[in-house]
Amino acid sequence: MKLKSLVGDRSFYKMTFTVALPIMLQNFITNLVNMLDNLMVGSVGTEQMTGVSVVNQLVFIFNLAIFGAISGVGIFTAQFYGKKDNDGIRYTLRYKLYICVVLFAIALGIFLLFNEPLISMFLHESGDGVDIAATMEYAREYLYVILFGLLPFAVANAFAGTLRETGDTFTPMVTGLVAVVVNCLFNYLLIFGKFGFPMLGVKGAATATVLSRYVECIIIVAYAVAKRKTKFPYVRYILKSFTIPGELTVAVTKKAIPLFLNEVLWSTGMSMLTVAYSLHGPMVVAASSISSTVNNLFMIAFLSMGSSIGIIAGRLLGANKHEEAVDAVKKLIAFSVFLSIIMGILLFSVGSLIPSLYKETDDAAKELAVYFIRVFSLIMWIDAIANASYFTLRSGGKTFITFLFDSGTLWVLSVPVAFILYYAGFSIHWVYPIIQLIGVVKVIVGLALVEKKVWVRTII
Description:
By secondary structure, the protein is mainly α. It is 79% helix and 0% strand. The chain has one domain (3-451).
């Protein structure tokens, strides 16, 4: 493959940034505020930050379950948009809303009935000075409040995903930015009790998150409904009927279930990795929380490129422009890797300075967080290739392959290896980099599948 074939012209990158920049900006602001949230909770104490981190691991599974289900349906939305079929888009949005209600009900039941045993999985005595009982109490306080934000989060994502898939990445960006500003502001007011507000600690952090979820949901739904006659005709009559054509329901379900299962199993697998890391002590959970928050801030470039690949390739495939899709994907993957290398260098250079801002967090946790950050900065390009390959395969409806590709490697390799290494006596300083390097397997498999063009097809 010639290097020239991996580089696009000015119009290509203009089109790419039109799609990617709003997603990047939204992700950047979101992750920046998440880091500020983490800093605020961390400034209260190690137990509080560990408790919030554990609950966020559990809520993370719900969030990705919503993402997976919506994304599976979104494959059809993007291709219906390429075909200019507003009825098809309306049906997919309606399907997404059904999924949101069902998943919310399931998650609510699980979190209310099994919160203590789920949280306990992440908490293990290790003699590092962390109070396990206090950490459990903080975690449950945070969880009981955060549950109120699950449904608005899901509905907002259903609308935001549809808007992005139909060419409007600006509106979700703006609503997302408003939400994170609300979250950050009320975190400050409610965690520390500023300007007459009560000092609620971790409850304040949860309350701020819930408020931001409702703000985001109300704004994006209201805007979509207000513009239903001009920008978003598929929103018209969205609730006038609750039916979806049976043939489309079956087709969408077949594609959505593997992606849904993938996200659930992947997020569960990531949580199990955290459980494996937590065997080394609660201090590792705190360090992991700090490092992942920092890493996420620098991952936005290649993660946003992955979403952009799915949108751009999906539109081209929906319009039966197969050769253009293949050419665009090659250039987009190359560009994603380039961005990840640049961000990896920045992360290694300045990311390791951020843990020092956690004033009330134990020094051992901060030192370990710096180590995690530096390791990840060196292998970020591996995740970039795997992420781009995943979204490429998904754009053509190869959801079962993406399921095996993504969750398969995590559960068959990463999770068992993490536990085996712990019981074999390896320290976390060896376990973490070994687990990260397993991503090379996904790179080899992903690039091979992309090169074979198994994803190049129109599914509507």
